[in-house]
Amino acid sequence: MTSIIKVDQIQTASGSTPTATDLGINVAGNVLQTAVANISNQVNTNNQSDTEVSSALRVTLTPRSATSKFVVFLCYHVVTVGGASHATVFPLRMINGSWQNVSNYSTGSKNEAHRNAFSTGEFTTATQVILDEPATTSDVTYSLFMRTNGSNIRINDNGCDTRIVVQEIAG
Q1: Comparing C-alpha atoms, which of 84, 70, 76, 97 is closest to residue 145?
Q2: What share of the chain is helix, strand, coil (3-state, %, to 5)?
Q3: Which of the 8 DSSP states describes residue 26?
Q4: N or C terminus of the chain: which is more exposed, having fewer CB within 10 Å?
Q5: How far apart are CA 132 and CA 129, in angstroms?
Q6: Are 105 and 138 in contact (CB under 8 A)?
């Protein structure tokens, strides 16, 4: 059985136009939008400064509210060579053209989602889930960055992929 409801206007009991919340839309905790980026090419660096893995890995969402939260899912394969102590992989966000740390991450060694402190190197797949609260309605862009102490760090070794998934959650 199929039912169709057609109306010209919806009003609240007081006669006003209902908000999204009145209609049960954009209720706190609901996923409002999702964006995904994926790369499969191998990326290497021995750069000692913050280096974006790939601009193709950027995900941009325009928050529907300044109270929205973002859940950032990162999955990548990373290889470091022996002597690459302090090779790091970490997310950053861009708001109004400026890259900045994601909420709950600080500058220096505390902004790493992944860190290899072994002198023998490392070969691993990593997954992180990060909750960010940018408190803006301007476009928010997320991407993955890396840096090392001068040795080599490589993303997507052996044909693995790197993926970033960002979901806006109503606040």
Answers
A1: 76
A2: 5, 45, 50
A3: S
A4: N
A5: 10
A6: no
Q: Which residue has the tokens 């902004």?
A: 111
Give kind and range of the element (H or E) at residue 73: strand 69-80
Residue tagged 């049960």 (tokens): 24
Q: Which residues contact 136 (CB under 8 A, 6 or more apart)?
A: 63, 66, 95
From the list 36, 40, 106, the residue with the least C-alpha distance to 74 is 36
